[in-house]
Write a structure and sequence with these properties.
Number of domains: 1
Helix content: 10-25%
Radius of gyration: 21 Å
Order of helices and strands: HEEEHEEEEEEEEEEEHEEEEEEEH
Number of strands: 21
Distance between the termini: 13 Å
Strand content: over 45%
Mean pLDDT: 77
Low-confidence stretches: 1-34, 323-364
Structural class: mainly beta
Largest sheet: 11 strands, antiparallel
Number of helices: 4
Length: about 375
Protein backbone atom coordinates (compact mmCIF):
# COMPACT_ATOMS: atom_id res chain seq x y z
CA UNK A 1 0.00 0.00 0.00
CA UNK A 2 2.89 2.36 0.69
CA UNK A 3 4.26 1.97 -2.85
CA UNK A 4 0.79 2.44 -4.31
CA UNK A 5 0.42 5.64 -2.27
CA UNK A 6 3.59 6.99 -3.86
CA UNK A 7 2.29 6.09 -7.31
CA UNK A 8 -0.97 7.83 -6.46
CA UNK A 9 0.84 11.01 -5.47
CA UNK A 10 2.69 11.05 -8.79
CA UNK A 11 -0.45 10.19 -10.75
CA UNK A 12 -2.44 12.99 -9.20
CA UNK A 13 0.36 15.49 -9.65
CA UNK A 14 0.57 14.82 -13.41
CA UNK A 15 -3.08 14.09 -14.12
CA UNK A 16 -4.66 16.17 -16.60
CA UNK A 17 -9.40 15.22 -15.32
CA UNK A 18 -7.22 15.55 -13.94
CA UNK A 19 -2.85 18.89 -13.33
CA UNK A 20 -0.30 19.33 -16.03
CA UNK A 21 3.16 20.61 -15.27
CA UNK A 22 3.85 23.84 -17.13
CA UNK A 23 7.02 25.79 -17.77
CA UNK A 24 7.24 29.55 -17.78
CA UNK A 25 6.59 31.18 -21.16
CA UNK A 26 8.06 34.26 -22.83
CA UNK A 27 6.76 37.85 -23.14
CA UNK A 28 3.12 38.40 -22.31
CA UNK A 29 0.74 38.68 -25.24
CA UNK A 30 1.36 37.80 -28.89
CA UNK A 31 2.47 41.37 -29.52
CA UNK A 32 4.53 41.61 -26.33
CA UNK A 33 1.83 43.52 -24.46
CA UNK A 34 0.44 42.69 -21.05
CA UNK A 35 1.92 42.31 -17.58
CA UNK A 36 2.26 38.54 -17.26
CA UNK A 37 4.39 35.86 -18.85
CA UNK A 38 2.61 32.59 -18.14
CA UNK A 39 1.29 29.21 -19.16
CA UNK A 40 -1.90 27.78 -17.67
CA UNK A 41 -4.14 24.75 -18.14
CA UNK A 42 -7.37 23.38 -16.75
CA UNK A 43 -8.73 19.87 -17.23
CA UNK A 44 -11.55 17.72 -15.93
CA UNK A 45 -12.91 14.28 -16.79
CA UNK A 46 -16.20 13.21 -15.26
CA UNK A 47 -15.20 9.54 -15.12
CA UNK A 48 -12.13 7.61 -16.17
CA UNK A 49 -12.67 3.88 -16.70
CA UNK A 50 -9.84 1.40 -17.02
CA UNK A 51 -10.34 -2.29 -17.77
CA UNK A 52 -7.52 -4.57 -16.65
CA UNK A 53 -7.48 -8.01 -18.29
CA UNK A 54 -5.16 -10.64 -16.88
CA UNK A 55 -2.87 -12.05 -19.59
CA UNK A 56 -4.61 -9.95 -22.22
CA UNK A 57 -3.35 -10.06 -25.83
CA UNK A 58 -0.98 -7.18 -26.49
CA UNK A 59 -1.93 -5.20 -23.38
CA UNK A 60 -3.44 -5.82 -19.97
CA UNK A 61 -5.38 -2.54 -20.27
CA UNK A 62 -7.43 -2.81 -23.49
CA UNK A 63 -9.80 -0.08 -22.33
CA UNK A 64 -8.56 3.16 -20.76
CA UNK A 65 -11.13 5.84 -21.47
CA UNK A 66 -11.78 9.17 -19.74
CA UNK A 67 -14.81 11.25 -20.43
CA UNK A 68 -16.42 13.44 -20.98
CA UNK A 69 -13.09 15.24 -20.82
CA UNK A 70 -12.57 18.99 -21.19
CA UNK A 71 -9.19 20.70 -21.51
CA UNK A 72 -8.13 24.33 -21.95
CA UNK A 73 -4.65 25.86 -22.30
CA UNK A 74 -3.47 29.44 -22.77
CA UNK A 75 -0.05 31.08 -22.66
CA UNK A 76 1.20 34.63 -22.91
CA UNK A 77 2.73 34.08 -26.37
CA UNK A 78 -0.76 34.02 -27.82
CA UNK A 79 -1.21 30.26 -27.98
CA UNK A 80 -4.76 29.42 -26.91
CA UNK A 81 -6.61 26.14 -27.43
CA UNK A 82 -9.24 23.86 -25.94
CA UNK A 83 -10.86 20.51 -26.62
CA UNK A 84 -13.66 18.28 -25.38
CA UNK A 85 -14.10 14.60 -26.16
CA UNK A 86 -16.11 11.52 -25.24
CA UNK A 87 -15.01 8.82 -25.42
CA UNK A 88 -11.49 10.21 -25.56
CA UNK A 89 -9.03 7.84 -27.29
CA UNK A 90 -5.95 9.81 -26.26
CA UNK A 91 -3.79 12.10 -28.37
CA UNK A 92 -2.72 9.27 -30.68
CA UNK A 93 -6.28 8.16 -31.32
CA UNK A 94 -7.16 11.68 -32.44
CA UNK A 95 -4.11 12.46 -34.60
CA UNK A 96 -2.97 9.12 -36.08
CA UNK A 97 -5.86 8.62 -38.58
CA UNK A 98 -4.95 11.86 -40.35
CA UNK A 99 -1.28 10.85 -40.58
CA UNK A 100 -1.78 7.42 -42.16
CA UNK A 101 -1.81 8.60 -45.84
CA UNK A 102 1.48 10.43 -45.29
CA UNK A 103 3.10 7.41 -43.65
CA UNK A 104 1.60 4.70 -45.89
CA UNK A 105 1.65 5.78 -49.56
CA UNK A 106 -1.58 4.93 -51.30
CA UNK A 107 -3.51 4.41 -48.08
CA UNK A 108 -7.00 5.94 -48.15
CA UNK A 109 -7.68 9.07 -46.13
CA UNK A 110 -9.55 8.33 -42.95
CA UNK A 111 -12.21 10.64 -41.54
CA UNK A 112 -11.27 12.56 -38.39
CA UNK A 113 -12.24 11.12 -35.03
CA UNK A 114 -15.89 12.18 -34.67
CA UNK A 115 -16.25 12.50 -30.89
CA UNK A 116 -13.82 15.38 -30.52
CA UNK A 117 -14.20 19.16 -30.68
CA UNK A 118 -11.08 21.32 -30.68
CA UNK A 119 -10.66 25.07 -30.96
CA UNK A 120 -7.39 26.91 -31.56
CA UNK A 121 -6.85 30.65 -31.89
CA UNK A 122 -6.92 32.04 -34.54
CA UNK A 123 -7.33 29.04 -36.87
CA UNK A 124 -10.47 27.47 -35.41
CA UNK A 125 -12.08 29.89 -32.94
CA UNK A 126 -15.07 27.63 -32.28
CA UNK A 127 -15.83 23.93 -32.60
CA UNK A 128 -18.85 21.83 -31.76
CA UNK A 129 -19.84 18.18 -32.09
CA UNK A 130 -23.12 16.53 -31.17
CA UNK A 131 -24.07 12.89 -31.58
CA UNK A 132 -27.08 11.51 -29.76
CA UNK A 133 -26.64 12.13 -26.05
CA UNK A 134 -23.08 13.45 -26.44
CA UNK A 135 -22.47 17.21 -26.76
CA UNK A 136 -18.99 18.72 -27.10
CA UNK A 137 -17.88 22.31 -27.57
CA UNK A 138 -14.69 24.39 -27.49
CA UNK A 139 -13.96 28.08 -28.01
CA UNK A 140 -10.70 30.05 -28.08
CA UNK A 141 -9.60 33.69 -28.31
CA UNK A 142 -6.10 35.10 -27.90
CA UNK A 143 -6.48 35.45 -24.14
CA UNK A 144 -9.04 32.80 -23.21
CA UNK A 145 -10.12 29.25 -24.00
CA UNK A 146 -12.93 27.08 -22.72
CA UNK A 147 -14.34 23.61 -23.38
CA UNK A 148 -17.36 21.65 -22.21
CA UNK A 149 -18.55 18.09 -22.70
CA UNK A 150 -21.63 16.19 -21.59
CA UNK A 151 -23.13 12.75 -22.05
CA UNK A 152 -26.43 11.22 -21.03
CA UNK A 153 -29.74 12.95 -20.39
CA UNK A 154 -29.79 16.67 -21.10
CA UNK A 155 -29.39 18.92 -18.12
CA UNK A 156 -28.07 17.59 -14.83
CA UNK A 157 -30.41 14.66 -14.26
CA UNK A 158 -29.69 11.07 -13.23
CA UNK A 159 -27.31 9.27 -15.55
CA UNK A 160 -25.67 12.45 -16.83
CA UNK A 161 -21.95 13.20 -16.89
CA UNK A 162 -20.33 16.52 -17.70
CA UNK A 163 -17.06 18.42 -17.54
CA UNK A 164 -15.86 21.93 -18.28
CA UNK A 165 -12.54 23.74 -18.29
CA UNK A 166 -11.47 27.33 -18.91
CA UNK A 167 -8.39 29.54 -18.80
CA UNK A 168 -8.60 33.34 -18.97
CA UNK A 169 -6.00 36.09 -18.89
CA UNK A 170 -7.49 39.09 -17.10
CA UNK A 171 -6.12 42.62 -17.22
CA UNK A 172 -9.10 44.10 -15.41
CA UNK A 173 -9.48 42.08 -12.23
CA UNK A 174 -11.84 44.22 -10.19
CA UNK A 175 -14.22 41.25 -9.98
CA UNK A 176 -11.39 39.40 -8.18
CA UNK A 177 -11.21 42.25 -5.64
CA UNK A 178 -7.77 43.27 -6.86
CA UNK A 179 -6.54 46.76 -7.70
CA UNK A 180 -7.73 48.04 -11.10
CA UNK A 181 -5.23 47.20 -13.83
CA UNK A 182 -3.75 44.24 -11.94
CA UNK A 183 -3.05 41.34 -14.29
CA UNK A 184 -4.01 37.78 -13.43
CA UNK A 185 -4.62 34.39 -15.02
CA UNK A 186 -7.52 32.23 -13.85
CA UNK A 187 -7.82 28.52 -14.69
CA UNK A 188 -10.90 26.56 -13.57
CA UNK A 189 -12.31 23.08 -14.12
CA UNK A 190 -15.39 21.16 -13.03
CA UNK A 191 -16.71 17.60 -13.37
CA UNK A 192 -20.18 16.31 -12.49
CA UNK A 193 -21.45 12.73 -12.31
CA UNK A 194 -25.08 11.97 -11.46
CA UNK A 195 -26.39 8.53 -10.43
CA UNK A 196 -23.43 6.15 -10.78
CA UNK A 197 -24.06 2.52 -9.78
CA UNK A 198 -21.86 -0.59 -9.72
CA UNK A 199 -22.54 -3.71 -7.68
CA UNK A 200 -23.79 -2.79 -4.19
CA UNK A 201 -22.49 0.81 -4.53
CA UNK A 202 -24.62 3.78 -5.59
CA UNK A 203 -23.48 7.39 -5.91
CA UNK A 204 -26.20 10.00 -6.12
CA UNK A 205 -24.04 12.91 -7.24
CA UNK A 206 -20.35 13.81 -7.37
CA UNK A 207 -19.13 17.34 -8.17
CA UNK A 208 -15.41 18.15 -8.26
CA UNK A 209 -13.91 21.59 -8.88
CA UNK A 210 -10.43 23.07 -9.10
CA UNK A 211 -9.15 26.58 -9.74
CA UNK A 212 -5.92 28.54 -9.62
CA UNK A 213 -5.32 32.28 -9.90
CA UNK A 214 -1.84 33.44 -10.89
CA UNK A 215 -1.02 37.05 -9.96
CA UNK A 216 1.63 39.26 -11.54
CA UNK A 217 3.93 38.89 -8.53
CA UNK A 218 3.99 35.10 -9.03
CA UNK A 219 1.56 34.34 -6.21
CA UNK A 220 -0.57 31.29 -6.98
CA UNK A 221 -3.93 30.98 -5.24
CA UNK A 222 -5.35 27.44 -5.21
CA UNK A 223 -8.83 26.16 -4.47
CA UNK A 224 -10.64 22.85 -4.95
CA UNK A 225 -13.76 21.09 -3.78
CA UNK A 226 -15.55 17.74 -3.81
CA UNK A 227 -19.26 17.37 -3.13
CA UNK A 228 -20.63 13.88 -2.47
CA UNK A 229 -24.28 13.03 -1.95
CA UNK A 230 -26.54 10.01 -2.09
CA UNK A 231 -23.85 7.39 -1.39
CA UNK A 232 -25.30 3.99 -0.53
CA UNK A 233 -23.84 0.56 0.06
CA UNK A 234 -26.78 -1.75 -0.31
CA UNK A 235 -29.51 -0.07 1.74
CA UNK A 236 -27.09 1.82 4.01
CA UNK A 237 -26.61 5.54 3.34
CA UNK A 238 -23.06 6.64 4.09
CA UNK A 239 -20.62 9.47 3.60
CA UNK A 240 -17.01 9.13 2.56
CA UNK A 241 -13.88 11.05 3.49
CA UNK A 242 -10.18 10.52 4.05
CA UNK A 243 -11.22 8.92 7.38
CA UNK A 244 -13.19 6.21 5.58
CA UNK A 245 -16.95 5.78 5.77
CA UNK A 246 -18.62 8.52 7.79
CA UNK A 247 -22.11 9.36 8.99
CA UNK A 248 -23.90 11.55 6.42
CA UNK A 249 -24.20 15.13 7.54
CA UNK A 250 -22.06 14.95 10.67
CA UNK A 251 -18.94 13.61 8.97
CA UNK A 252 -18.13 11.49 12.02
CA UNK A 253 -16.39 8.22 11.14
CA UNK A 254 -18.32 5.02 11.70
CA UNK A 255 -16.95 2.75 14.45
CA UNK A 256 -14.39 0.18 13.36
CA UNK A 257 -16.95 -2.63 13.41
CA UNK A 258 -19.32 -0.72 11.12
CA UNK A 259 -16.42 0.15 8.80
CA UNK A 260 -15.61 -3.54 8.51
CA UNK A 261 -19.24 -4.43 7.77
CA UNK A 262 -19.45 -1.87 4.97
CA UNK A 263 -16.15 -3.04 3.50
CA UNK A 264 -17.37 -6.64 3.67
CA UNK A 265 -20.58 -5.69 1.84
CA UNK A 266 -18.51 -4.13 -0.93
CA UNK A 267 -16.14 -7.09 -1.02
CA UNK A 268 -19.13 -9.35 -1.63
CA UNK A 269 -19.41 -7.64 -5.01
CA UNK A 270 -15.65 -7.74 -5.55
CA UNK A 271 -15.42 -4.02 -4.88
CA UNK A 272 -13.28 -1.52 -3.04
CA UNK A 273 -13.86 2.24 -2.69
CA UNK A 274 -11.04 4.67 -1.97
CA UNK A 275 -11.24 8.37 -1.17
CA UNK A 276 -8.55 10.30 -3.05
CA UNK A 277 -7.60 13.47 -1.15
CA UNK A 278 -6.82 16.80 -2.74
CA UNK A 279 -3.23 17.13 -3.95
CA UNK A 280 -1.24 20.26 -4.54
CA UNK A 281 1.57 20.41 -7.07
CA UNK A 282 4.24 23.07 -7.41
CA UNK A 283 2.10 24.92 -9.95
CA UNK A 284 -1.49 23.83 -9.36
CA UNK A 285 -4.02 21.64 -7.67
CA UNK A 286 -5.96 18.41 -8.25
CA UNK A 287 -9.26 18.07 -6.46
CA UNK A 288 -10.29 15.14 -4.32
CA UNK A 289 -12.08 12.23 -5.97
CA UNK A 290 -13.08 8.59 -5.68
CA UNK A 291 -11.40 5.45 -6.95
CA UNK A 292 -13.74 2.48 -7.34
CA UNK A 293 -12.43 -0.95 -8.29
CA UNK A 294 -14.41 -4.09 -9.06
CA UNK A 295 -12.62 -7.40 -9.59
CA UNK A 296 -13.91 -10.71 -10.88
CA UNK A 297 -12.47 -14.15 -11.52
CA UNK A 298 -12.24 -15.13 -15.18
CA UNK A 299 -10.83 -18.24 -16.89
CA UNK A 300 -7.69 -16.31 -17.88
CA UNK A 301 -7.16 -14.81 -14.44
CA UNK A 302 -8.58 -12.00 -12.35
CA UNK A 303 -9.94 -9.04 -14.31
CA UNK A 304 -10.82 -5.62 -12.95
CA UNK A 305 -12.73 -2.48 -13.79
CA UNK A 306 -11.48 0.76 -12.23
CA UNK A 307 -13.43 4.00 -12.21
CA UNK A 308 -11.95 7.28 -11.05
CA UNK A 309 -14.55 9.99 -10.47
CA UNK A 310 -13.75 13.63 -9.85
CA UNK A 311 -10.13 14.82 -9.85
CA UNK A 312 -10.62 18.18 -11.58
CA UNK A 313 -7.28 19.92 -12.11
CA UNK A 314 -5.90 23.40 -12.74
CA UNK A 315 -2.35 24.68 -13.12
CA UNK A 316 -0.50 27.92 -13.89
CA UNK A 317 3.07 29.16 -13.76
CA UNK A 318 4.74 32.47 -14.61
CA UNK A 319 5.11 35.99 -13.33
CA UNK A 320 5.53 39.64 -14.24
CA UNK A 321 7.44 40.49 -17.40
CA UNK A 322 10.97 41.75 -16.86
CA UNK A 323 12.79 42.71 -20.07
CA UNK A 324 10.82 40.05 -21.94
CA UNK A 325 11.65 37.30 -19.47
CA UNK A 326 9.12 35.80 -17.10
CA UNK A 327 9.71 35.59 -13.40
CA UNK A 328 8.93 31.94 -12.79
CA UNK A 329 6.57 31.15 -9.93
CA UNK A 330 7.56 28.23 -7.74
CA UNK A 331 5.34 29.08 -4.82
CA UNK A 332 4.80 26.48 -2.13
CA UNK A 333 1.32 25.09 -1.37
CA UNK A 334 -1.05 27.31 0.53
CA UNK A 335 -0.94 26.88 4.27
CA UNK A 336 -3.92 25.17 5.83
CA UNK A 337 -5.08 23.53 2.60
CA UNK A 338 -6.22 19.93 2.62
CA UNK A 339 -3.49 17.52 1.49
CA UNK A 340 -0.89 20.26 1.64
CA UNK A 341 2.09 18.02 0.86
CA UNK A 342 3.10 18.89 -2.71
CA UNK A 343 3.64 16.04 -5.15
CA UNK A 344 6.48 15.89 -7.62
CA UNK A 345 5.70 18.10 -10.57
CA UNK A 346 7.74 16.28 -13.19
CA UNK A 347 8.68 19.53 -14.91
CA UNK A 348 9.34 19.37 -18.62
CA UNK A 349 7.58 16.05 -19.28
CA UNK A 350 4.94 15.63 -21.94
CA UNK A 351 1.51 16.08 -20.36
CA UNK A 352 -0.31 13.35 -22.27
CA UNK A 353 2.50 10.83 -21.73
CA UNK A 354 2.62 11.50 -18.00
CA UNK A 355 -1.14 11.13 -17.70
CA UNK A 356 -1.28 7.78 -19.51
CA UNK A 357 1.73 6.29 -17.72
CA UNK A 358 0.49 7.34 -14.29
CA UNK A 359 -3.00 5.99 -14.84
CA UNK A 360 -1.77 2.69 -16.29
CA UNK A 361 0.49 2.10 -13.29
CA UNK A 362 -2.16 3.17 -10.82
CA UNK A 363 -4.93 0.97 -12.23
CA UNK A 364 -2.77 -2.16 -12.45
Amino acid sequence: MASRGKVLDVALAVLVGGAAVLAAAGPAGADGSGDLAFRATAEAAAVRMTMTVANGPGTNDPIDVPGPISHAAVNSLGSSSAFASFPYPGDAGVTVPGLIPAVVPGAPSLPPYPFYAKSEHPIVPKAQQAAGAVNLSAESTQTASKAAGSAGPQGDGPGSMSSEASVTEMNDTRQLYLAPGTAAVVATSKAVVAAFAAGPLTLGRVVSTASVTLLADGTLQRKSGLELSGIRIGDQTVGLSSSGFVAPGSGLPFPAGAQDQLSTALAGGGMTVEFLPERQTDDGIVSAGLRIRQERDMPNGRDALTWVIGQAAASAVGGARSDGVSQDSSSSPSEGAVGASPASSGAGRDIATDRKEAWRTWAS
